[in-house]
Amino acid sequence: MGQKFYVTTPIYYVNDSPHIGHAYTTIAADVLARYHRACGHQTWFLTGADEHGVKIVKAAAEKGLTPRQLADSVVVHFQEFWKFLNISNDDFIRTSDARHEKRLQAIMERLLQRDQVYQGKYEGWYDEGQEEFVTESAARENQYQSAISGKPLVRYSEPSWFFRLSQWREKLLAYIQAHPEFIRPESRRNEVLSKLADGLEDLSISRSLAKLDNWGVSLPNDPTHCVYVWIDALSNYITALGYPPIGQEGDQGRWDFWPASLQLIGKDILWFHTVYWPCLLMALDVPLPRTIFAHGWWTSEGKKMSKSLGNFVSREVITELCNEYSRDAFRYFVLREVPFGADGDFSRQAFQLRYNVDLANGVGNLLARTVNMIGRYFQAQVPQPDPSAGAQPVQQAAEALIAAAGPAMEQCRFNAYLDKVQDLVNATNKFIDVTEPFKLAKDATQRQRLGGILYACAEAVRLVLSYLEPFMPDKAAEGLSQLGLAGPRRLDQVGRWGLLTPGQALGKAAMLFPRKL
Ligand code: MSP
Fold it and tell me: How far, in Å, from the CA of 279 to the mean position of ligand 1?
């Protein structure tokens, strides 16, 4: 058995359509999944939809729909959008799936058996946008408004079932301290550690079903209550793998993928994923995921995204950009523009600039020059390598990329990975400018050297495209076919200098990234 890689995204609320925030995490997970598959690792990539809770019930009521009708109509937007963006998820879980609901109830039963849940009364402030109870002091600090959305907090008072969260605080602290890779980046880890130092209260994990239009997963021991939406949602990461096993539904084998290698989230849902989630797993005696990575947030044209400001990077806006520039350009942009973990700003100008500089003038131009010159001077056949070509700077840049790729992916440093790709593109374009193959082509005595130069260029482009493939699957395949190479390619096999076979026929040249004015 090879190495296993299990990556997840948050499951998205179906009260609204997808936007750049959802696309961002999902593209990142897709790139990682594609990279690991290309390395020959057994890979599982899960995404899905979070369909219960107040948010959905309210949004449905506003539209005159039942929650199920709303969920059924909006979930399709996500599923279609992921296809459009070429997302290669292996599974898509909906919290309204029977497979999830049954397993969630079995999880609740386990928690009850282990005396992890007790009945109490909840009274306090609730942030309906975040689906989260807020302590009196935190509520006061924010003038009884949501710290995230600014909307007024709502006063709740009801009987509720509680999870003995406070009991796990010491163990969790010890775990986070002993496992520096558990919460990333480091700044987020520190944030969680310092908040945990303030203490931890037990967590209300049930809601009255009557107040939720009966939309939720009922508790096995109290049919009037359903599971709190966050507990419902977090458990998707294991129910989708067939945990706990119930009946014979054929998906139990996936449990081998647990613990997750990497769970990607946005910074706003850090606490749920790094405190509630691991404590729940400890209470179930299930091992913890290896890494929870929280990325930053996108603003748009310098401001917080908002529909009323007209700067909302919606599914429609992204679709239009992809139609104009290609979906691969969008996939590339979001991971190239901002270090993963930091906040970033989306702007059309920045997008077009990156496109023209990195893609049209960079890899696109390099590919076109190389294929055209080999076409013209060597009848479109890969020439012989030659030591007199002076291609060491190109080969060194290629080797730097090969060495950096694995560690960069391991740390979700997508922009560092892409920097190395760009370095190789730049080194090769410079090599062409300096060696001037078009001049050498006029001198018959230079033929061998000319061949060596173009061999090195073709080899560099081959590596550039191979390493870009997880980010830009379509464009990389198109480019590689211009080099006469067909997929599928395994990075662990093709990621070495000098693998192009002299004499091999190239395909047809075509512009990969036409310049945009
Ligand atoms: N349903 C919960 C997650 C449950 S996971 C067990 C949820 N859903 S969400 O649809 O509201 O948000 C999903 C993700 O989108 C979050 O990771 C959030 O950080 C991300 N983003 C929402 N707006 C964003 C930006 N403007 N920029 C980047 N990511 C953002 O929360």
Answer: 21
Taking phi first (over 0 means left), then psi (-120 to 50 degrees means alpha), and beta for anything else, what does residue 255 get?
alpha
Count the residues in the chain. Answer: 517
CA atoms within 13 A on the CB side of 139: 16
Residues facing 117 on adjacent strands: 163
Q: Give, in degrees to the nearest 5, the angle at Cα 109 between 104 and 114.
A: 125
Cα-atom radius of gyration of the chain, to the nearest Å? Answer: 26
Q: Which residues line ligand 1 (CB under 6 A)?
A: 10-13, 21-22, 24-25, 50, 233-234, 265-266, 268-269, 297-298, 305
In eight-state DSSP terms, residue 259 is S
Average pLDDT over residues 357-380: 97
Distances (CA, A) of 89 to 9, 94, 188, 290, 352: 10, 14, 27, 20, 28
Residue (of 271, 266, 12) closest to 138 by Cα position: 271
Distances in whole angstroms, Cα of residue 45 to Cα of each of 9, 55, 99, 162, 263: 8, 26, 18, 32, 10
pLDDT of residue 123: 85
Return the DSSP state at 483. T
What is the rounded CA–CA span in Å between residue 143 and residue 155?
13
Could you tell me the distance, in angstroms and rounded to a whole number, from the CA of residue 21 to the centre of ligand 1? 6
Residue nearest to atom 23 of ligand 1 (CA): 21
**Strands across the sheet containing 203-204:** 132-134, 117-127, 154-163, 203-204
Domains of the chain from N-terminus onward: 4-296 (3.40.50.620), 348-494 (1.10.730.10)
What type of residue sits at position 503? G
| Interatomic CA distance for residues 478 and 484, integer angstroms | 10
Look at residue 344 in the predicted model and tell me its pLDDT: 96
Residue pLDDT, tens place only, 158-194: 899 999 999 999 999 999 999 999 999 999 999 999 9
Asked if residue 251 has pLDDT above 80, the reply is no
Which of 17, 25, 271 for mutating ligand 1's site (highest number of atoms within 8 Å of CB)?
Answer: 25
Q: What's the angle, vertex CA 38, arms to CA 363 and CA 290, rounded to 5?
A: 115
What six digits make up the tokens of 109?
């039963």
CB 293 within 8 A of CB 269: no
